[in-house]
Amino acid sequence: MTYDTGVDTVAWLLDADPAIRWQAMRDLTDASPAEIAAERARVPREGLGAAILAAQHADGAWRRSTGSTWLPTLFTLQLLRATGADPADPAVASAIARLDGTLGWDNRSGYWELGPLEPGVNPYFAGEVEPCINGGVLALGAYFGRPTKSLVQRLLGDQLADGGWNCEAPPSTCSSFHTTICVLEGLLDYERAVGGAPEIAAARRRGEEYLLERRLFRRRSTGEVVDPAFLELAFPPRYRYDVLRALDYFRGSGSQADPRMSEAVSRVESKRRADGRWQLERAHAEALAVPIGESPGDPSRWNTLRALRVVASVRP
After folding, report:
1. What percent of the chain has pLDDT over 90?
2. Is residue 236's pLDDT more than 50?
3. How confident is the model at residue 3 (pLDDT cuts 50, 70, 90)?
4. Contact at 8 Å (CB) between 146 and 100?
5. Of 68, 191, 223, 277, which sits with the fewest C-beta atoms within 10 Å of its C-beta?
6. What are the phi and psi torsion angles at 64 (to 5°)?
7. Structural domain includes residue 52
8. Considering the domain boundaries, does residue 61 fall inside one?
9. Residue 7 pLDDT > 80, yes or no?
10. Based on the number of CB atoms within 10 Å of its own CB, is 135 exposed (0-12), middle (13-18) or buried (19 or more)?
């Protein structure tokens, strides 16, 4: 059965920032490839994509007025990835080259931070030690033309016996939903960038099974909801897990609809408002160098775009 996306809802998405408009054209309309490409080309020059690029500092980092550098750099770059900005666009390529050539992960003081790229400092796209961070860095490197095989190998070695990943391992031997989705996204983007590999595909299947065995938000042992926040639709997600993020991953991976996704899909569908839109229930935006233009409680174009393409493609 074809899912009813709603003409008015799609029109609302098309009357939006180029970052949303081009993805809505690609995923929810019959627009031609040329029309989609033309709209995507606007992302680095208008709206959110342009604001992100303009906020980069001369040393390649993104910053807020106070606090660490690595947080706003990582999560603002993840937002740029979410806009779908073309990595080959000169403005985007220049921003990535500036970061890649000047900054890296420095642990010489006993904690990880970004510092000048010099001996003893890990190149930015080589990552650090926490798999939740490294999953995000791997996804960024793969998307922006810096896929890092050594980081993949590290993440494969970090996979736990239950199929997922956890930044607290060791000592923890149980996986985390949060870390697992970060790593799965990174591995998927890496496969897209360099082609599939049997060991990566096997690791992803084990990680996917970890989520599916828990119906994307329940404890396997008791069937209880792991965390009510998993059912709140957030954007941007930062490192945090929720069912819409998981379903969007499965959509992007090309996975066939699995009956164990059914309840999560129904939970997302149930949040659709009478006007056909989904609202922003949570925003993990505290580390961003730029505002996203949406606040919790508002109707959200980001969540509506993601929810529509999810229920239209992975609905069992």
Report:
1. 91
2. yes
3. low
4. yes
5. 223
6. -105, 180
7. no
8. no
9. no
10. buried
Instruction: For residue 312, give its domain range.
Output: 220-248+256-316
Q: Which two tokens stand for residue 175?
A: 């996986």
pLDDT digits 0-9 by tens, 110-163: 989 999 999 999 999 999 999 999 999 999 999 999 999 999 999 999 999 999
Averaged pLDDT, 70-76: 96
- Domain tally for the chain? 1
Question: How many whole angstroms separate alpha carbon 296 and alpha carbon 29?
Answer: 27
Q: What is the DSSP string of the chain?
A: ------HHHHHHHHSS-HHHHHHHHHHHS---HHHHHHHHTTTTTSHHHHHHHHT--TTS----SSS-SHHHHHHHHHHHHHHT--TTSHHHHHHHHHHHHHEEEE-TTSS-EEEE--TT-EEGGG--S-HHHHHHHHHHHHHTT---HHHHHHHHHH--TTS-B-TTTTT--S-BHHHHHHHHHHHHHHHHHH---HHHHHHHHHHHHHHHHTTTTB-TTT--BS-GGGGS-BSS-TT---HHHHHHHHHHHTPPP-GGGHHHHHHHHHT--TTS--B--B---TT-SS--S--TTSB-HHHHHHHHHHHHHS--
Question: CA 282, CA 183: separation in Å to the nearest integer?
Answer: 22
Query: Across the chain, what does the average pLDDT equal?
Result: 95
Indicate if the pLDDT at residue 1 is higher than 90.
no
Model confidence pLDDT, tens digit, residues 263-306? 999 999 999 999 999 999 999 999 999 999 999 999 999 999 99
pLDDT tens-digit profile of 155-181?
Answer: 999 999 999 999 999 999 999 999 999
Within-domain flag for 268: yes
Q: Is residue 90 part of a domain?
A: no
Measured distance CA(22)–CA(38) in Å, rounded: 8
User: 104 forms bridges with which residues in the sheet?
Assistant: 115, 123
In the chain, what is the greatest distance between 2 CA atoms, to the nearest angstrom?
58
